[in-house]
Write a structure and sequence with these properties.
By secondary structure, this protein is of the alpha+beta class. It contains eleven helices and ten strands.
Length: 319
């Protein structure tokens, strides 16, 4: 075995130990311990080797440069995290909705797509760029590293199953990495919700990397079982009201729980609070075909979504 392979395996093993340690500490002492948050962030300094595994076009690079110039010219780094997320989301208003941009590669690659977004890649992109602004490092290489850290389990790209396909998995992982935390239980009206997660393993023919079975499918099955056994919280959509809005900030990540069989969440986007304190939903819309801010209050938006049962709210650290 080469020295390079040994180093990568050692790094993955270390990350697994750190995840286990920090998750146990969090379970015993809660979400708000600043010391533990700092520990988590330090635990993920190990950077994945992504050189040669990045898929990006000239158009995406040009979009990134326009974003970087705007953020630097307007000194977004001096703003609160919630405002940076809000402004970053606004930057992408009108960007076309494009599904399945992360799929179809023979082997797993870090896909950088800033010209076509789906609901989750919009949120990942916004969060990754915000973190780059906060770190005062708006280089493309920094963005690629941050995107990889957010998109993959433990921040390490290690094949198809290392990508955080399920939103419940994504929420849990970004918490352990000190990126954001689930604040649902801090909002009035929250309840436990049971999730049975098995869509991917029951429909492997719909995923290029799972059609052939093998280790990726087995890893996905294990992840699904873990998520099914986990505890989940949400706010039923009937309980979303003006009191809920008081607890929310622009930039909060709104995850819509679904009753669709085998799935945990059906959609995700960002809270957008207007000057009157009303919260709207900023998201990449499949039906309208672009990134937009819905004119309806958040609760009214949800009422028209038959399969949405409620929402989980996630907030970036630093707020």
């Amino acid at each position: 075995m080469s020295k390079g392979k040994i180093t990568i395996i050692g790094a993955l093993a270390l990350v697994s130990v750190l995840v286990l340690t920090t998750s146990k500490l969090l379970a015993s002492s809660g979400d708000n311990d600043d010391t533990l948050v700092n520990l988590m962030r330090q635990s993920y300094i190990i950077e994945p080797k992504i050189s040669g595994d990045v898929k990006i076009t000239r158009e995406d690079s040009a979009t990134f440069q326009r974003y970087a110039e705007k953020a630097q010219t307007e000194d977004w780094a001096a703003l609160p995290t919630s405002e940076i997320i809000k402004k970053t989301g606004e930057f992408f208003r009108g960007t076309p909705y494009v599904a399945f941009t992360l799929e179809g590669n023979e082997s797993e690659r870090l896909v950088v797509n800033l010209t076509g977004l789906d609901c989750l890649t919009f949120v990942e992109t916004t969060l990754a760029l915000t973190n780059c602004v906060k770190e005062n490092d708006l280089s493309l290489q920094s963005y690629e590293r941050e995107l990889c850290r957010i998109r993959y389990r433990h921040g390490v790209m290690d094949g198809y199953a290392s990508r955080l396909h399920y939103l419940s998995d994504w929420i849990r992982d970004i918490r352990y990495k000190g990126i954001a935390r689930d604040i649902t239980r801090e909002i009035n009206g929250c309840e436990k919700v049971k999730m049975t997660v098995d869509y991917m393993s029951n429909h492997p023919d719909r995923y290029t990397q799972l059609k052939k079975g093998g280790i990726d499918l087995e890893r996905i099955k294990a992840i699904e079982q873990d998520l099914t056994n986990a505890e989940h919280w949400y706010i039923p959509k009937s309980k979303i009201n003006s009191e809920t809005y008081k607890k929310l900030k622009s930039g909060d990540i709104i995850c819509w729980v679904t009753d669709a069989k085998g799935l945990d969440y059906g959609h995700v986007g960002l809270a957008y609070k207007d000057d009157n304190g009303t919260v709207h939903f900023m998201h990449a819309s499949l039906s309208i075909g672009k990134v937009l801010i819905d004119i309806r209050p958040l609760g009214d938006y949800a009422k028209n979504k038959e399969h949405f049962t409620g929402m989980t709210v996630v907030r970036a650290f630093g707020e």
